[in-house]
Amino acid sequence: MVIDVTLPQLGESVTEGTVTKWLVREGDVVTKDQPLLEVATDKADAEVPAPVGGRVVKLLAKEGDVVPVKSVLAQIEEGVSTPAAVAAPSPRPSTVPALAPPSVRKEAREQGVDLGGLQGTGEHGRITKDDVQRAKAPEAITIPVAVPAARPQQLAAAINQGGGFVPPIPGTGFGTFKVPAYRPTPGDQVIPFTRRRRITSDHMTYSKFASPHVVTVAEVDLHKSARLREAHKDRYKKEGQALTMLAFVVVAAARALRENPALNARVLDDAYVLLKDVNVGVAVDSPDGLVVPVVRRADELGVRGIVRAIDEVAKRAKNGKITVDDLSGATFSVTNPGIKGNLFGGAIINQPNVGILRMGEIQKRVVVVEGPDGEDHMVIHPVMYLALSYDHRIVDGVAANSFLWRVTELLERAEFEV
Fold it and tell me: Of 23, 99, 351, 403, which one has the greatest count of Cβ atoms within 10 A?
């Protein structure tokens, strides 16, 4: 019996995917759940497994094809356990270590790097994007790449809905101002955009044009939260988990979102919707760059639940195993610049959210507190600035400030169960 292999629904907002690489050829015998091909979407890269064991009868899509969800990609003759003779076999895909995730294999193909001889530096010897970058030949990144002229105009047309204001065109200019042409200089390195970087670039540009960003900042005294963390972090560490300040911020943000639903919303064409579920996207690093996996119904989780959820998605992201579902459905975002952060900064809103909370660097500073005697005292406490970027189309200053004030209050009281 011949079974169709179709492109699965890789996420609620995904409608199509790009076939990036076939891992089998016609005539191959495969086992159930064996990866057949790699597919890239606007959310993440994924492998499509074999629904049954048998012989690959036909490949119906070529590498580079963009195919809709549910399209037939290949056909497998179920139960056949011996390979068939193929009249004109195409070159078999090169053998790639199983310890190289799809995103890294794609990067290696784009940069002309042979993974066969690489020694991985990631967890359990996994090959990372940095390993590929280090192995890349210098000349591979010095070739100028032309950007399609239609893309900026299409972006401007999409933004300029309703007529009137014509926005600046990225890479081209605005009005009488034109961006100077690039003139190569010996030693310059022109680095082509990867697919992930192009998606990120378009997303951030759209967000800045579509949403009038306003940034408000709060100073948070983390004395009580820091003491709570210090008292329990070793216990979490023994259990294989990290009790970070990020977890406390996500818990506080989720509670504040439930109490201030104006920040847990999205804009429609001529209306907006207050969303029922509080799903917090948390920015983490991955071999493909920054991704924002989602902690679902975060307001229903305590500190331990948030720690576990963040730990799980962060590990999958670093190992290149993040899925489209992991990255879909955020209603609000929290971003942490890490240990090499800075005082504070206004992050760009992750569309279609209407707010994003950015953590700043935690520093010890002199603060004034009221002592038991009713007198003011100067003490040294860990302090952090939280910066909220919000969409002024539907979020007013009162709602934004109320939300940020509540997050601050929760962190300063530190009334969390850990």
Answer: 403
pLDDT value for 304: 95
* Catalytic residue status for 288: no
396 is catalytic: yes
Mean pLDDT of 306-319: 87
Q: Regarding predicted confidence, which is higher, 346 or 136? A: 346
User: In the 3-class helix/strand/coil scheme, how is 279-313 assigned residue by residue?
Assistant: CEEECECCCCCCECCEECCHHHCCHHHHHHHHHHH
Mean pLDDT over all residues of the chain?
83
Q: Is the pLDDT of residue 389 over 70?
A: yes
Question: How far is CA 161 from each of CA 51, 165, 167, 268, 321, rounded to the nearest angstrom?
Answer: 44, 9, 11, 13, 38
